[in-house]
Amino acid sequence: STMIEVKRAKGKGRGVYARVHIPAGTVFERAPLLVMAEKEALEGDHANVLPAYVFEYGKGKVALALGFGSLYNHSYSPNARYDDAGNQVKEYRALRDIERGEEITINYNGAEDVMDPVDFNVVES
How far is Cα 109 from Cα 74, in angstroms, rounded to an integer? Predict the structure, then answer.
């Protein structure tokens, strides 16, 4: 999408940022998923990298979102959300207006109002 870009996010590594004003409700990315068995993705030589980028996708499976899909940072006050949008596709949508230059964040728990703990220290911008 021409609406977003990846940049360094202070204290977080990389993050996804708005290149333009994104109005509330706008779908700004559709990311195809690479679905794999959890055992394949989270064990072995690559287990030190993939766990930070995959999410649960059904029983015993995880998915890596292509495009920028696996680079959005977590927030308990996100400005965007993701939803299934067809066969192995995630759609990213603005929950509110997102200003140019603002980091786009999602709640890794799957819904913006779920406050379950995550396995890392959350850095809020």
Answer: 9
